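subagent[fold] <- orchestrator: predict structure for attached chain, return tokens only, no commentary.
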Amino acid sequence: MDVQIREVPLIPTFKLYLCRGVEGLIGPYKIVKRTILTADDTEIDAWDVLGLGSTLIRLANDEGDSHATGSVFMQSWQEWFDSCWCRYDPS
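subagent[fold] -> orchestrator:
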């Protein structure tokens, strides 16, 4: 198994899982204002994203219909992912 991890300079607003062109999961993060304790014990008010507990929506590619909702979802999000992945290729 080949696994690559890359960082992109984007603020996360959702989780996205694309599974080999077959199905995808997407879930929005909730944005909350909360107090955060820093390493030097200073409390600061901050906006934070909560990914834990995000509701994931599943859509599947319909190979028989390129205009089906799942097919359009998979193609458009795969193109978005590829544009991020290729742009920030460290090599």
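orchestrator: received. Logging for downstream: Helices lie at 69-87. Residues 69-87 form the longest helix (19 residues).
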